Amino acid sequence: MFNKLKTELQFFREQPHDFRILVLTNMIYALVLPVIDIFVAAYVMRNSNDPTKVVIYQLTIYTGIPLTFLLNGFLLNRFNIKKLYAAGMLLSGVSMMIMMSLKTLDLVGVGIAGIIMGMSFGFYWANRDYLALAITNDKNRNYYYGLETFFYTIIAVVVPLVVGWFIQTAGSGQDVKSAYIIVTGMVFLITIAASIVCFKGHFRNPSDKKFIYFSFHPYWRKLLTLASLKGLAQGYLVTAPAMLIMLLLGKEGALGTAQSLGAIIAAFIMYIIGRNAKPEHRLLIFAAGLICFALAALFNGALYNATGVIFFMLFLLVAKPMLDMAYFPIQFSVIDILSKKEQRSEFAYILNHEMGLYIGRFIGAGTFIFLAYYYSNEIALRYAIIIIAFMQLMSIFVARIIIQQGKSLIAEELAPGNEIPDEYQPQGKTNIHP
């Protein structure tokens, strides 16, 4: 076992400098992601007891993200990408501080905190996606995302458990807000540490300054369809687990335990997949993730009790990393092909892709609000996720078409052998086989 770990560590050290720095930066920042994704929503739920307010908070986040993607494009012409990347991580702590400073969680305060959190995600994901695209190629992306996902799932075992039980034990009675404030302070310190590591990288801004286009290749529209389907779940899933657990289990400690149980299983699954999967396995991984997601929705809808929530979290925490591990390489392979074919900056596609996600997120969150307003919160929490999960199953067929058409486009552009020559691989990339 020790020799295996030593081999894995040595293999990681052999990767390019920027590859290692980006992984380490994201690994440190991953320590705060469960807090941002789960416990901020739980804080809103605890202090407002209003699931629709939680979803409205999420909608303001999702509104801030695409606007910041656009702003980030302009700022990249003036500031180094490392500064914008670090700003995104730091803003997440600022947003939490604003939330904790509110005496009452009215819609205005929740909306302001949500917009700032959306700006944080916008700066973080816009620059993270571009850097991940710039330092990887189609052959090493399974390894990159397998490695990232493995660390994320390990972190997801520890952080929700520790934070959840800390809030529950240290925050009894009126002290619960103090516990959340302490957690917020720790989040801010971790974002500072991640920013420091980020500045050790030799990351470069996009060379092409133009990034706004309104007309794209028909192949790109297929990926936007896939992005919208992915966004459906994002519009619901960031807040739904916290709402379900707070309503049906009732404690942040239980919230952390449920997260950790699923993450333990997911960590081992992601390790195996990340080390053995090849590009041709992406559709299979993607389909498996979507099926796990559908099973999670069915358990929640059929049982709608504490047991149902536990099964929901178990399947969900396997589904999400599997979907990401397959989706991002599919997305980046499309960008690789079209950025060369249309002679455009990769960031132009990253920006436009966010709009596809936003449409899906808005529909997903809107579905919840509609069911909650016209029927009840229970109907929304119980059945919205089932509707979304089965709509998402269409993603399997869309992804299959994208992969097949991508092979055809590469075959049209390249010499016999269908291998990507050097000019089709961004500078600094190396082929890495997991």
The count of DSSP E runs of length 2 or more, i.e. the number of strands, is 0
Quickly count the helices: 16
Alpha-carbon distance between the termini?
18 Å
Largest sheet: none
Assign the CATH topology. Answer: Growth Hormone, Chain: A
Task: Estimate the global geometry from the Cα principal axes.
Answer: globular
Structural class: mainly alpha
Computed Rg: 21 Å
The ordered string of helix (H) and strand (E) elements is HHHHHHHHHHHHHHHH
Walkthrough of the structure:
With 434 residues, the chain is an all-alpha fold. The chain has a single domain, classed as Growth Hormone, Chain: A. The protein has 16 helices and no strands. The protein has helices spanning 2-13, 17-29, 33-48, 51-75, 81-101, 107-135, 141-170, 176-198, 218-237, 240-248, 252-276, 282-303, 306-341, 346-374, 377-392, 395-413. Helix 3 packs antiparallel against helix 4 (51-75), helix 12 runs antiparallel to helix 15 and helix 12 (282-303) packs antiparallel against helix 16. The longest helix is centred in the C-terminal third of the chain and has 36 residues, at 306-341. The chain is globular, with a radius of gyration of 21 Å. It is found in: Cell membrane. InterPro entries: MFS, MFS_trans_sf, MFS_Transporters. This is MFS transporter.
